[in-house]
Amino acid sequence: MDRDQLADKNLLVVSHGYKHFVKSQVDVLAEYFDTVTVCVRYNWFADVASRLPGDSGDGFGKDSKIAQSHVPENVHVVETPLLYLPVDFQRDHFLGQQHARKVRKELEDHPISFDLIHCHMSWTSGYVGARLKEELDVPYLLTVHANRNWFQEQLDSDNDRLTRAWTDADRLIRVNRRDRSKLEPYNDDVVHVPNGYDTDIFERVPTESARERLGIDDETPVVFALGTLKPRKGFQHLMRAMTQVRDAEPDARLVIGGQGGMRDELESLAEELGIADQTDLLGYVESETLNDWMNAADMMVLPSYSESFGVVQLEAMACGTPVVATKNGGSEEVITSDDYGLLVEGPESHDELADAVLEALNRDWDADAIEAYASEFTWETVCEEIADLYVEVLEAQRTEPIPTAH
Fold first, then answer.
1. pTM for the model
2. Is residue 405 domain-resident?
3. CATH code where residue 288 lies
4. Strand order in the sheet with 279-283
5. Is residue 201 part of a domain?
6. What range defines the domain where residue 368 resides?
7. % pLDDT > 90, the chain
8. pLDDT tens digits, 251-279
9. pLDDT at residue 57 greater than cutoff 90
10. CA gap 137, 328 in Å, rounded
11. Rounded to 10 degrees, what is the CA torsion of 386, 391, 394, 395?
12. Are residues 24 and 156 in the same domain?
């Protein structure tokens, strides 16, 4: 593919965030384009709620959705504030229309015309993309990121607007292979492109150096986990498995990074299980420190019920660290060999999970092989595939026959 033909093109991205995986992807793709405009949906009510007691606004406000630093010069972020309650009928059915109106209003005075639209998340960004494709007469691609359970809920829904997001896409991208067949009834152009990891953040450094910076003894077994503190991530089950791990490895420490509404519950559970003195809940972890944890750990554990892909596993592997994960819909496509990690049936299989953690602690892993495998999934590599898709749809648009006038 001749990706150079993108150099004078302008890309519009519609997403639910410009942080983490979307930002990492956009920033690499920006190298191919003249400009990239990112319309980011956020809930302005969450900014108000975040100032009130409780955590009802966590994760939905502007600060949670939009990165303010290290933005490439040719990337322009357009804030798209919406108003909706966390869970209600309006969000499930009418929020797409509100989102589409808001994006069009924000773009009215935008000085750039777009050649291509790429949306992240089927509902509501995908619906916005389908509307914009019709209004602007430019190709539209959609990446479907939903975890396994959320994706099944979308398939079972009666939301015609969500269905339109899938049917109208010029390329429908799913981040795992297994779900392509479920999307093919809606679209003839369904492709698999995995998520990637950010090489600017995650790199292999000497374990001893990482542990020294974190204040961890070289001999302490460290089991690391990372994610939003919510039931789907399964950290409560990892804690229960750790009671068995501790019987065989009395000095083993469980370290969990991430924020979320389950923090108090997990702290209480650690006390109840008698492992509070060997369990650390770090909260939010800055990038540099996170890289140290990934390098310092003996393994990274993802005990989740449901994932679309699980990029956190690649981030650990990029540091040469093996992964223990549950069969959650995404991990099976990352841990493709026991040379890189171990899979267990599910988060509630405490005995199997404990056995896998112990096996990982005692195995002599080939860190070089793990790192080499992860290098296949850098954003630079993944974005080459995405850029090729862009070229394909633009070339297809140029060769479409002109309708005959009657």
1. 0.90
2. no
3. 3.40.50.2000
4. 279-283, 253-257, 222-226, 299-302, 323-326, 341-344
5. no
6. 207-377
7. 86
8. 999 999 999 999 999 999 999 999 999 99
9. no
10. 38
11. -140
12. yes
